[in-house]
Amino acid sequence: MHKRLSLDEYRDGILAGNRVILSRAITLIESHLPQDKTLAQNLVEQLLPNTGNSIRIGITGVPGVGKSTFIEAFGKSITAENRKIAVLAIDPTSQITKGSIMGDKTRMEELAHNPLAYIRPTPAGDSLGGVANKTRETILLCEAAGFEIIIVETVGVGQSETLVKSMVDFFLLLMLAGAGDELQGIKRGIIEMADAIAITKADGNNLQASKNARLEYLHALHLYPSGINNWQTPVMTCSAINNKGINEIWETIQSYIKKMKLSGFLEQNRQQQNIEWLYTFIRQTLENDFFNNSVVIEKFAGIKEKISSGKMLPIHGAKELLKYAKSAD
Ligand code: GDP
């Protein structure tokens, strides 16, 4: 176990783009020790003036859609421009398996060895909300360390997309041709969240099917009105293994960012995301304080018993417990 550095040492190291110190600071963010968390939060706050300068991109899709292969190819395009890219993951499975299907080391191997790229897997064993908070703070640290493009990747299972959407500027949905929407677990809401849809693996025998799928999604999207940002979601095809369509997607993202900066939407969206983050923290803190309250813990079993045996209404049980929590403050 490393010795903890001082706040100044972390700050200076990150501002100098020192990756070892960046990694150690992220470990601090991921720590469950209260003193680590406090130090990490103070560090992130100190670095706030040096944040906000990246393009934050969310990428989602079902397992096997080709996310890591895509990010590898995409990352190569970015690093070829001599720009720095960080890849973070929100893995909704990690809390169940205590491991991580996304965090295994063989993913994005080439990119992982590129000095302009930084890849950080999800901490295992955390709640989805907990991981999301840590990812938000990690985004800020990576920005302070000079990363210009930050990718937040998640497996498409529902809730995790909403969380990723709430912390990025651009949300890219990867889809497979030929697999029905149901099969891909894609709900209407997810399609509506996308700023672009890319049909992956548009190569070989799959090329025609990908083109057809593109037209189908384009058609489906026309049924939705464009949002307040006045952006028509493009549907594109790509092949990560043939490096086709990857640059076009990157150009689309850059053109989106340019437009949204000009219209003021980008800034407005980030401000709103920060306010949402505030509310999330308040809710989480209240909930944690409540469930960790010693009187609540002591009385909980008895109240649960009354409710499950039908002697008490849940609303009355909740009120009673909330009263205990308050009086024990
Ligand atoms: P993830 O689970 O979404 O990260 O998907 P992976 O990137 O691991 O890809 C799943 C499988 O699809 C792997 O066997 C890849 O080799 C394959 N794959 C990924 N991208 C492409 C592509 O552009 N074309 C083809 N033909 N296969 C691909």
Strand order, biggest sheet? 3-2-4-1-5-6-7
The distinct bound ligands, ions and cofactors come out as: guanosine-5'-diphosphate
Structural class determined from secondary elements: alpha/beta
Bin the helical content. 40-55%
> Which residues sit in consecutive blocks of at least 5 with pLDDT less than 50?
none
Mean pLDDT: 89
Backbone CA Rg: 22 Å
Q: What is the count of DSSP helices, taking H or I runs of 4+ residues?
A: 14
CATH fold naming of the largest domain: Rossmann fold
CATH homologous superfamily title of the largest domain: P-loop containing nucleotide triphosphate hydrolases
Description:
The chain has about 325 residues and is an alpha/beta fold. The protein has three domains: about 1-50, Up-down Bundle (Single alpha-helices involved in coiled-coils or other helix-helix interfaces); about 50-260, P-loop containing nucleotide triphosphate hydrolases (Rossmann fold); about 295-329, no CATH class. Helix content is about 55%, strand content about 10%. The chain is built from 14 helices and seven strands. A seven-stranded parallel sheet has the order 3-2-4-1-5-6-7, sandwiched between helices. Helix 10 links the parallel strand 6 (about 195-200) and strand 7 (about 235). The structure holds guanosine-5'-diphosphate. Guanosine-5'-diphosphate (GDP) binds near residues 65 and 69.
Task: Supply database-style keywords.
7 strands; seven-stranded parallel sheet; Rossmann fold; alpha/beta; binds guanosine-5'-diphosphate; Single alpha-helices involved in coiled-coils or other helix-helix interfaces; 3 domains; single chain; 329 residues
